[in-house]
From TrEMBL:
GO terms for molecular function: DNA binding. The lineage of its organism: Bacteria, Bacillati, Actinomycetota, Actinomycetes, Micromonosporales. This is DNA-binding response regulator. Gene3D superfamilies: 3.40.50.2300. Residues 10-126 form the Response regulatory domain. Keywords: DNA-binding, Phosphoprotein, Transcription, Transcription regulation. It comes from the Bacteria. The modification 4-aspartylphosphate is found at D61. Residues 154-219 form the HTH luxR-type domain.
Length: 225
């Protein structure tokens, strides 16, 4: 985050269920490093809330009235790029997952996630990382497998990457962590982190989620290969 990471992570909770919002607030309030600065019951109120409160993280439901979570995320990525979006839903449908990630969300969790995992996810997202589990990576891969031809326009964006950066991007797209990539390439983990930062900067991407999607769109990585 610009100016350094804040000591307290400011979170906006967005869900159309009153009891769910209350439950999420209670879970997050158990962590002294997290402050719930507001709530919203639909996507339109979420967008307004972000503009008013400038939270670090939005915990966003997918299916809501007026404006759904995916549409709200897409709007917020342009209006408040410093705010990170963590999608939380009861639905495991790949359309929701892919739609949320393509819209610019930095992570995707199911509502049955344990409280400690939710808190950890908030810290991960606030720290500038993405929450990309193997199951979510699999969803992206499966969706990209249905697209028969690489996006040639997107492929041109890879020209500025060095050979090593392309190697790192490929491994990121296969769902490897920085530590796993470092082991595979026989380099320090700090070196991998530097490569990832440069890749995101060169390709003008927000996080690893978008990097994975771009890698499959360009054909750099093919499902099953």
């Amino acid at each position: 985050m610009p100016g350094g990471r804040r000591a307290v992570i400011r979170v906006l909770v967005v869900d159309d269920d009153d009891l769910m919002r209350a439950g999420l607030r209670a879970v997050l309030s158990s962590d002294e490093a997290i402050e719930v600065v507001g709530e919203a019951a639909d996507g339109r109120a979420a967008v307004d809330g972000v503009r008013r409160l400038s939270p670090d993280v939005v915990l966003m439901d997918v299916r809501m009235p007026r404006l759904d979570g995916i549409a709200a995320t897409r709007e917020l990525v342009g209006a408040a790029p410093e705010t990170r979006i963590l999608m939380l839903t009861t639905f495991e449908d790949d359309d929701y997952v892919f739609g949320a990630l393509s819209a610019g969300a930095s992570g995707f969790l199911l509502k049955r996630t344990r409280p400690e995992q939710l808190i950890e996810a908030i810290h991960t997202i606030a720290g500038g990382e993405s929450l990309l589990s193997p199951s979510v990576t699999r969803t992206v891969i499966d969706r990209m497998a249905r697209q028969p031809q690489p996006d040639l326009g997107a492929s041109r964006r890879l020209r500025d990457l060095t050979p090593r950066e392309r190697d790192v991007l490929e491994l990121v797209a296969r769902g490897l962590s920085n530590a796993e990539i470092a082991k595979s390439l026989i380099v320090e983990e700090s070196t991998v982190k530097t490569h990832v930062k440069r890749i995101l900067a060169k390709l003008d991407l927000r996080d690893r989620v978008q990097a994975v999607i771009l890698a499959y769109e360009t054909g750099l990585v093919r499902p099953g290969i």
